[in-house]
TrEMBL record:
<dbReference type="InterPro" id="IPR036255">
    <property type="entry name" value="YgfB-like_sf"/>
</dbReference>
<dbReference type="InterPro" id="IPR011978">
    <property type="entry name" value="YgfB-like"/>
</dbReference>
<dbReference type="Pfam" id="PF03695">
    <property type="entry name" value="UPF0149"/>
</dbReference>
<protein>
    <submittedName>
        <fullName>Predicted metal-binding protein related to the C-terminal domain of SecA</fullName>
    </submittedName>
</protein>
Length: 191
């Protein structure tokens, strides 16, 4: 791998910066950032770096950074993380792991996928993905189940078994969607 993944301190720092400068329209944490970057990398077209950063902050308004070093470090870490995701998706799909959140409930650690899925769907919306072939729509639906507010009722009515299955479906869905759009891009089907 080229730059490699972010270390725990870098992830915590990014999370803190997203919280510090976050708004109602921005990415709220590293899990959502990871989902957003995965969708951007997986989509039908290449996204410019400036568009990526606008998507992180929810529009054209950037934070008022404390100093130039903070801005520079943030940008470097975001694009290092993006490059790591890109490399895993393209070269090492077995090592691709969505960066889901966790929480402790009743002395058990539970996986929280909503922020990642919300970020992914934000990336889909950013790029205005064209319609998928019918056989791939369930893959996007697996992510959208946890990533779109309009699916909340369906999500809340899942049995515990169906809930666990829905979480297990996210990673393979992301890999399948990446594979499809990447083959379309490299095959010249999309412009």
């Amino acid at each position: 791998m080229t730059q490699g993944p972010l270390n725990e301190d870098e992830i915590i720092w990014l999370d803190d910066v997203l919280l510090k400068y976050g708004t109602a329209h921005s990415v709220i944490d590293v899990a959502e950032l990871d989902g957003l970057l995965t969708a951007i990398l997986s989509g039908p077209k290449v996204t410019e770096p400036a568009t990526v950063l606008r998507a992180v902050w929810g529009g054209d308004v950037e934070p008022e950074w404390e100093n130039e070093e903070e801005l520079t470090r943030f940008n470097i870490l975001v694009f290092q993380h993006m490059n790591d995701i890109a490399e895993r998706l393209a070269e090492y799909p077995g090592q691709f792991e969505p960066l889901f959140g966790t929480s402790e409930v009743d002395n058990r650690e539970i996986t929280i996928v909503e922020e990642w899925c919300y970020g992914y769907m934000r990336g889909v919306s950013l790029e205005s993905w064209p319609a998928l072939p019918a056989e791939l729509q369930p893959e996007l639906d697996a992510i959208a189940l946890h990533g779109l507010e309009e699916n909340e009722t369906e999500f809340e009515n899942l049995t515990p078994e169906a809930f666990l299955a829905s979480i297990e479906a996210i990673k393979p869905a992301a890999l399948a969607l990446y594979g499809y759009w990447h083959s379309q891009r490299s095959g010249g089907a999309l412009h």
